[in-house]
Every structure is written in structure tokens, then in C-alpha cells.
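quick one before i forget lol
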Amino acid sequence: MTVIFLPMTLVSGVMGMNMEDLPGLKGSFTEVMLLMGLVGFLVYLGLRLKRII
């Protein structure tokens, strides 16, 4: 159950944070999604190299 619900909970928790007034956080949604995709791909490659998946 955790494998299914943890990623959704993490994403909704991060997206639900109200950090509009903090300086330096005016990045667009596209930039955040690209960064998350890149990190996910790097994790996948790391796991693939270690022959875990």
C-alpha cells in the first residue's frame, strides 16, 4: 500500500505548501516538473546500473 500512496502523498504535500512569499521561489510549474523528471530518471539509471531493477 505504501508503494502506491507514498508518491501521491509526497507530490500533493509539496504542491500544497504555500511558499509564495519566500524569496527566490518564483519558478514555474514547468521547471519544477522538469527537475522532478530529471531526478526520477537519474534515480532509475542508478538503480538500473546497480541491477536492482
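fyi Helices lie at 2-15, 29-49.
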